Amino acid sequence: MEEVGRVTHYFSKIGVAAVVLTAPLRLGDRIRIKGKTTDFEQVVESMEINHTPVEHAVAGDLVGIKVKEKVRPKDIVYRL
């Protein structure tokens, strides 16, 4: 498991996590989001930068990722 970012915000109405990346991430990557009360895996199926869909992003980017469960700030995103 490789850490690829940290959650900064969760938009509950649309089910999107704002994540600051520390490593590259692309559509199709399998990720695990883990925190004090969060722990689930999913495939990255939707990712945006500034409301524009992207297929990949690099370290330092702030991306929005559609998530299947609630996440919380400071949760860690890992690539599996």
SSE layout and pairing:
Layout: E1 2-11, E2 16-21, E3 25-26, E4 30-34, E5 39-43, E6 47-49, E7 52-53, E8 56-57, E9 62-66, E10 76-79
Antiparallel strand pairs: 1-2, 1-10, 2-9, 3-8, 4-5, 4-10, 6-7, 6-9
Question: What does this protein look like?
Answer:
- The chain has 80 residues and is mostly beta strands.
- Strands 5-4-10-1-2-9-6-7 form an eight-stranded antiparallel β-sheet, with no helix packed on it.
- 24% of the residues are buried.
- It contains no helices and ten strands.
- The chain has strands spanning 2-11, 16-21, 25-26, 30-34, 39-43, 47-49, 52-53, 56-57, 62-66, 76-79.
- 0% of the residues lie in helices and 55% in strands.
- A hairpin with a 4-residue loop joins strand 4 (30-34) and strand 5.
- It is globular.
- It has one domain (2-79): Elongation Factor Tu (Ef-tu), domain 3, CATH 2.40.30.10.
Could you list some keywords that capture this structure?
two-stranded antiparallel ribbon, globular, mainly beta, 8-stranded antiparallel sheet, single chain, 80 residues, Elongation Factor Tu (Ef-tu), domain 3, 10 strands
Under CATH, the topology is which? Answer: Elongation Factor Tu (Ef-tu), domain 3
Structural category: mainly beta
Q: Describe the biggest sheet? A: 8 strands, antiparallel
What percent of the residues sit in helical stretches (DSSP H or I)?
A: under 10%
Strand adjacency order, main sheet? 5-4-10-1-2-9-6-7
Beta-strand percent range: over 45%
Number of strands: 10
Task: State the helix count.
Answer: 0
Number of domain modules: 1
CATH architecture: Beta Barrel
Order of helices and strands: EEEEEEEEEE
Compute the average pLDDT. Answer: 98
CATH class: Mainly Beta
The CATH homologous superfamily corresponds to: Translation factors
